[in-house]
User: Which sequence fits this backbone?
């Protein structure tokens, strides 16, 4: 390793010549950096298996025609609609249901269900579809080859493939052509103790149909609510054990 | 001594011509901030290893406070044009492109990653 | 080299084919490049139908590949010495067809530039990853088999390689079937019967494409293949087509009478617009009944009708895969049983898919590449057995 590094040095030294002056100026810096790095705290904490992030969708509170969650998601992740809806990415969508027997109407959001036994994870040839320790199912966009097998496998139609060149992505939500993506439960927020954007928006809109939390924390609000009301997971017959639960279906 | 004389025309030219024309070596806008996240020599040599590692840590394990964040690089290394608009770090002649086109390295990072700082989070995450 | 009975194909005509095929291959590469730079938006594929025409062609070529190995297996595994002279051709066809199929598959990826990732990182739970092993293994094993048979290796070695290749190709097609079979959420695919169906289909398609290749490459040399072999392969083809038809019938009937997939079967067979047409007209009519009539009727049992039947079987195979792969996707997922659903994301509605020229170019280019590779192989390796000369003025001689 070290030998390899030295052997490639000259080329990089050459590259650096242009900025030799800048290099001189900071030649003291390295030592100083090392000292204050040694005192620095460890690089954050990894997602932990003690947690399983999940969500409760209370369809009795979800309002037909309200798109607050969908819009919040689009803003948060920079999802832009084109004039071809069939190729647009939709991480969360509102679905309107009509009971075939009773005619009862229900409106609810559907997003990645963050399954425990996720079909997308099982089929991904490179392992780019993966489940984080804390139960969030993600696409590692650095290793996704764009085969779309996960989209074939997902029972919830939760994933989108990027069909076009994108520009203007958000800093915290890199996205790009040729890979598959889906709801991330807003990992970038969750990792910083914030709620997903859709949940925040639903609450702000006064509906409170979405509750986000730790499924394995029995004292937590989510687990408490799940104990109180009758809930259902989508296509529970498939045994995927989604992290998203629905009430009122 | 002779070499200095031979270099003289070059040295004189530097005042007249942009750097890139003479040396054809990577020239890029000065970064903001006082210093880089690692010593410059280390950075030149290993920035892609840092980035790969950080990318892996963030995506797979949710660790978000490392120094080698790509958003961070963009935050310090993106420059503004005459109209004070951000220029993508990956644009021709800009920071990330300068050395790479010189060294014939191609990166795809900025097909996904934002190449300019974002208004509300100038330093990224 | 034990190649006394064999010869290399003549130069005559070779360049003409190259002149036709190379532009087709270039068109495919160009199309892939377009898809890579502009994105898949230029294809008919979308977020509802994520696998399109390129996959139909890729799966088609892969099935053809493993089936094209049949004559080699008949010779080495089942001891039918009559097929021994054409065993090499069979192996070479198999490899070339597989390469053609894989090229299409890879060029259709969203990030073909990350092929290296696909080859170096595996998720061993993924049937797709196992298939990647299956494909590479197939090429290696058939390659070894060919090398053994051409390099005068001991009979035992040739035989062993032949056995391994046979076992491997069964696994390979089972794996290809399982790619769809494991998609439990899609009602059109959730069936254990897909695995035997794919194996049978590969037998039929492979025999058909081999017959075409055999007749044409002999004809290229001014020779005719052993008539007995033609008739026997023709008969085999008929049996395979029948088996496929039976499996399709079983699958359909079990679904129609009580299966959970009833809706999708009704859709594909009756109500689904282009899909029932492709099913009844393409797969069943042109691809099964007509070839069976050609192969079984007394009057039309000549070589020309075997060739026609083979071509029809290929057409039927393409239709079959189109109905299965595309039809299975356009039919909406049932996320909410008992409800009628609608959304901005095409929930509850049949999706649209129409392939664009780019996809056609890519798919057809894959076939062209397979054919081109076969030709180059025949032009450089002693693959063609010495055989009866062709009667002047006939395309093929009747057996």
Assistant:
């Amino acid at each position: 390793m070290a030998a390899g590094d030295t052997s490639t040095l000259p080329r990089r030294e050459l590259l650096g010549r242009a900025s030799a002056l800048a290099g001189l100026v900071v030649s003291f810096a390295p030592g100083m950096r090392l000292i204050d790095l040694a005192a620095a705290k460890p690089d954050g904490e990894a997602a932990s298996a003690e947690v399983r992030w999940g969500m409760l969708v209370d369809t009795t509170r979800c309002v037909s025609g309200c798109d607050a969650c969908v819009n919040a998601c689009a803003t948060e992740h920079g999802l832009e609609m084109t004039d071809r809806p069939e190729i647009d990415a939709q991480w969360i969508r509102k679905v309107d249901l009509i009971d075939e027997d009773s005619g009862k109407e229900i409106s609810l959001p559907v997003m990645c269900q963050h399954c425990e036994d996720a079909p997308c994870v099982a089929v991904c040839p490179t392992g780019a579809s993966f489940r984080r320790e804390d139960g969030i199912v993600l696409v590692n966009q650095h290793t996704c080859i764009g085969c779309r097998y996960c989209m074939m496998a997902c029972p919830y139609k939760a994933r989108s493939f990027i069909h076009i060149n994108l520009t203007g992505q958000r800093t915290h939500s890199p996205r790009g052509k040729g890979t598959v993506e889906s709801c991330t439960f807003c990992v970038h927020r969750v990792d910083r103790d914030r709620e997903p954007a859709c949940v925040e928006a639903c609450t702000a809109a006064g509906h409170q149909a979405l509750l986000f939390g730790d499924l394995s924390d029995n004292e937590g609000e989510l687990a408490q609510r799940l104990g109180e009301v009758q809930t259902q997971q989508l296509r529970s017959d498939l045994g995927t054990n989604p992290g998203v639960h629905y009430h009122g279906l | 001594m002779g070499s200095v004389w031979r270099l003289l025309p070059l040295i004189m030219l530097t005042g007249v011509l942009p750097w890139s024309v003479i040396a054809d070596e990577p020239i890029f806008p000065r970064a903001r901030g006082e210093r880089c996240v690692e010593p410059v020599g280390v950075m030149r040599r290993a920035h892609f290893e840092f980035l790969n590692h950080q990318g892996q840590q963030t995506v797979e394990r949710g660790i978000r406070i490392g120094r080698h964040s790509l958003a961070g690089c963009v935050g310090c290394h993106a420059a503004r044009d005459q109209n004070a608009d951000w220029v993508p770090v990956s644009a021709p002649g800009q920071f990330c492109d300068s050395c790479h086109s010189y060294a014939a390295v191609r990166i795809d990072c900025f097909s996904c990653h934002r190449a300019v700082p974002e208004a509300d989070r100038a330093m990224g995450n | 080299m034990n190649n006394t009975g064999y010869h290399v194909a003549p130069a005559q005509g070779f360049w003409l084919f190259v002149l036709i095929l190379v532009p087709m291959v270039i068109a495919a590469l160009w199309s892939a490049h377009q898809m890579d730079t502009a994105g898949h938006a230029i294809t008919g594929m979308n977020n509802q139908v994520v696998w399109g025409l390129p996959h139909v062609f890729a799966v088609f070529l892969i099935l053809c590949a493993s089936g094209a190995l049949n004559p080699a297996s008949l010779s080495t595994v089942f001891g039918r010495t009559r097929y021994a002279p054409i065993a090499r051709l069979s192996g070479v066809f198999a490899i070339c067809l597989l390469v053609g199929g894989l090229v299409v598959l890879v060029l259709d990826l969203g990030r073909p530039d990350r092929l290296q990732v696909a080859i170096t990182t595996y998720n061993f739970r993924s049937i797709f990853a196992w298939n990647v092993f299956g494909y590479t293994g197939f090429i290696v094993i058939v390659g070894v088999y060919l090398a053994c048979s051409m390099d005068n290796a001991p009979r035992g070695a040739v035989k062993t390689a032949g056995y391994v290749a046979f076992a491997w190709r069964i696994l390979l097609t089972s794996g290809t079937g399982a790619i769809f079979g494991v998609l439990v959420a899609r009602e059109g695919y959730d069936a254990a019967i897909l695995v035997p169906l794919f194996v049978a289909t590969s037998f039929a398609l492979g025999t058909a494409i081999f017959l075409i290749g055999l007749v044409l490459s002999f004809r290229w040399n001014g020779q005719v293949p052993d008539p007995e072999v033609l008739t026997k392969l023709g008969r085999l083809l008929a049996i395979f087509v029948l088996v496929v038809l039976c499996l399709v019938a079983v699958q359909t009937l079990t679904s129609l009478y009580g299966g959970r997939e009833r809706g999708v079967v009704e859709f594909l067979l009756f109500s689904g617009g282009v899909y029932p047409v492709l099913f009844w007209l393409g797969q069943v009519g042109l691809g099964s009944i007509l070839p069976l009539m050609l192969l079984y009727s007394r009057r039309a049992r000549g070589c020309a009708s075997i060739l026609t039947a083979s071509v029809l079987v290929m057409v039927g195979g393409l239709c079959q895969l189109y109905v299965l792969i595309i039809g299975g996707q356009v039919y909406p997922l049932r996320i909410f049983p008992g409800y009628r659903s609608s959304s901005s994301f095409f929930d509850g509605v049949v999706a649209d898919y129409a392939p664009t020229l780019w996809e056609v170019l890519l798919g057809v280019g894959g076939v062209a590449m397979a054919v081109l590779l076969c030709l180059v192989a025949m032009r450089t390796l002693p693959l063609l057995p010495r055989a009866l000369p062709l009667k002047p003025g006939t395309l093929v001689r009747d057996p």
Summary: Residues 6-115+127-333+350-381 of chain C form a domain with the Formate dehydrogenase/DMSO reductase fold fold (CATH 1.20.1630.10). The longest helix of chain C spans residues 227-256. The longest strand of chain C covers residues 339-343.
